[in-house]
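Thread: Newbie trying to understand structure tokens

Hi all, I'm a second-year student working on a class project, and my supervisor (Dr. K.) asked me to get a predicted structure for one chain before our next meeting. I've only ever worked with sequences, so writing a 3D structure as a token string is new to me. If someone could post the tokens and maybe explain what I'm looking at, I'd be very grateful. Here's the chain:
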Amino acid sequence: MDATLSNIHLQQSNYDVDAIRAEFPILASEINGYPLAFLDSGASAQKPECVLRRMDDVYRRSYANVHRGAYTLSQAATDYYEGARKTVARYINARSDDEIVFTHNVTAAINLVAHSYGRRFLQRGDEVIISQMEHHANIVPWQLLRDEIGIELKVAPIDEAGNLLLDQLAEMFGHKTKLVSLTHVSNVLGTIVPIKKVIDLAHERDIPVLIDGAQGIVHTRVDVQDLDAEFYAFTGHKLYGPSGIGVLYGKKDLLNTMPPYEGGGDMIERVTFEKTTYRDAPARFEAGTPPIVEAAGLAAAIDYVDGIGIENISAHEEELLAYATERLNEVDGITIYGEAQHKAGIISFTLDKVHPHDVGTIIDSRGVSVRAGHHCAQPLMDWFGIAATTRASFAMYNNKYDVDALVDGLKYVKEIFS
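---
Reply by user tm_fold:
Sure, no problem. This is what the structure looks like when written as tokens:
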């Protein structure tokens, strides 16, 4: 463990956000003379020094291709890569590191399940249930499969506050329901879906479940054995790690029944011109040169988060969310979307008579970074009857200054458009 991380760990009972911020070099930046208030971690989080150092060290001292090299550098790179798999397995409490498949991101992980599991186990007329809150990455792959083999896509409803309606979801289950695929945390509303209850309801009917954990893994402890979902997907770049690497957790026996999604080097047992045999999971789903350095960076990020404690991070974000909600309600003409009973550190909103993109552009001139648009959730936007929102999303390193800068920026926007 890095000395800097140890120091933070010792102070975690008081959650020293200043010490944490000091570990993220980019947060010392200024935008147009204003201190950076970065409130777009829901899209991609910033990286601490330990992640940057780990990746730099691998590139400088240990880089080579993995698995088949009988020389020192290749063995060192393989140790980093397979060590990262073990780190992920430990962090989410998988039974085996063979249940950890490295992908490029969550989108790739869901596509893998849709096209590998889906083509093997689903057929015309079978139903896949998603929810009104899904990211496009958990909609489009199922639509592609629908167009290819004729499955049906059903959408579980939410209420005006953004709560998933569990009773109505349960009523949707039928003999044709073959998979439930839901978000853990809405990237727009911040709703924390009670996925354990969903999984239990589905399993009572022997229906498998996939969870899109892109936002969930960042804000809460994930124990895949306790959840018991067949699949759980998350990505490195939202968990303070690098982009270009994601994770698909899948139950080992199930993964080994699924055909490869891509073909190429390292996923094979033997190739002839007549026939190819494939390795067991996870190798069968990792064709070609993998994201070696990115895996090392992800492992460093997980160690960093684990050192601070996800429960401590979650408590800090919950406090910040409450403060931000109170302060944002001071702004005239604001409408907040998503007031579920259980929320993560995400707030989406609109301002009367101001386009979200104008909001984002104007407050950026004052150093505040937020996301504006449909957030890859156009069906949810349509359901609310809007085209877009402005979204502020919080991370371990945000503080009340960031919130105050956001609110001051929004009041400045109102002045301009008054």
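A couple of things are worth pointing out once you decode it. Confidence is low (pLDDT under 50) at residues 1-12. The radius of gyration is 22 Å. Feel free to ask follow-ups in this thread.
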